[in-house]
Amino acid sequence: MQTESISIHTTVTTASQLADLDLENLQFGKVFADHMLEVDFKDGAWQQPRILPYGPIELSPATAALHYGQAMFEGMKAYKTPEGKVVLFRPQDNWARMNKSAVRLCMPEIPEDIFMDGLKQLVALDADWVPQRPGYSLYIRPFMFGSEGLLGVRPATEYKFIIFCSPASGYYAEPVRVKIEEHYTRAVEGGFGFAKAAGNYGGSLLPAKLAHEEGYHQIIWTDGREHNYIEESGTMNVMFVIDGTLVTPALSTSILAGITRDSVLQLARDWGVPVEERRIKVQEIADAYKAGKLQDAFGTGTAATIAHIKSITFRGEEMMLPPVADRTLSNKIATELDNIRYGLSPDPHGWVVPVV
Ligand SMILES: *Cc1c(COP(=O)(O)O)cnc(C)c1O
User: Fold this and answer.
1) Which backbone phi and psi does 12 adopt, to 5 degrees?
2) Which of 138, 204, 287, 334 has minimal Cβ neighbours within 10 Å of its Cβ?
């Protein structure tokens, strides 16, 4: 069934930057595609969506989000298949998650047609910005914030929902050294760690910087109450293979429900790999390591899909993981997810959504 898509007022740029796009020297998040989608919420309703040239927005110094943190975002990618078709990966899940974040932060939910049609029409207009190279993609950043100029502490009555895009290179990250964080906390039960809230990121920068200075690429966050249980790795979900079983922390109010996480678990289940979503004690990882049963550890997220962990340091002891080439399951999953996105493998779960 073909449903009518909503009408979006579109102003096409007269100064495209596409000719200056240098795929060889692409730095993540530094170059932006020509257009953006902008939708205002005011008088209790979402207003007419607009697509316009990418550019600055004007804000009051009293803008609510800048003071009281009503700000959140999503992260997703568009891919170009070898035949030149532009596709999205599970965009409905980003829309649903955005609204979960919105509810937690007392912000208005975004109607599905505004999100999906706005997203598709924007990416279709900037389709030439989706690089047609293995591993490359167009990173998409939907976000929303309280835009009302207001110093009273209450939910804003005006919001902006914006989507803009940035071409991203084939992300091959070196395996990372991580440390178990037992002092700082990313999120606590009852807080808003499950929401993709700007504030979660603001609070994680200092601990990440300190870890960097100690020679670690990334932090493994532990629970805020006891620091005994594993939560996430940096801004990714984290998974382990222990004695042939794929194990990851169960979702909670302090863990973000990654779409990559869900996809990885689904593939593993499809393949008959034992999967456990449960609480994981740091001590369990240390014990598994000592027993020679810790076969893999990796982060999952849209940016890198799978980020292999090279070593985990816990109370000064560095646990060395097996060479990446030996990590059968995580390598197989990374390849399969790429193949599904680029149309090279079947898509039994209907994850891939064509844009044009
Ligand atoms: C975005 C994010 C993830 C990964 O989510 P994906 O949907 O897989 O990209 C994991 N943890 C945190 C804290 C995040 O913000």
Assistant:
1) -80, 140
2) 287
Paired with 37 in beta bridges are 51, 163
The residue segments making up the domain with residue 84 are 9-170
What is the pLDDT at residue 1? 45
Pocket test of ligand 1: the residue of 93, 139, 302, 351 to mutate, having most ligand atoms within 8 Å of its CB, is 302
Rounded CA gap, 309 and 306, in Å?
Answer: 9
> What residues line ligand 1, using a CB cutoff of 6 Å?
75, 196, 232, 235-237, 256, 258-261, 300-302
Range 281-296 average pLDDT: 98
In this predicted structure, the answer to whether residue 264 has a pLDDT above a threshold of 70 is: yes
Cα separation, 306 vs 172, whole angstroms? 10
Domain assignment of residue 347, yes or no: no
Residues 30 and 136 in one domain: yes
What is the distance in A from the centroid of ligand 1 to the CA of 10? 31
Half-sphere exposure for 49 (CA within 13 Å, toward CB): 23
Ligand 1 centroid–CA 270 distance in Å is 22
Contact 86, 78 (CB under 8 A): yes
| Residue minimizing CA distance to atom 14 of ligand 1 | 235
DSSP characters over 142-181: EEEEE--B--SSS--S-EEEEEEEEEE----PPPEEEEE-
> In this predicted model, what pLDDT tens digit does every residue of 72-116 receive, in sequence order?
999 999 999 999 999 999 999 999 999 999 999 999 999 999 999
Chain-centre distance for alpha carbon 261: 10
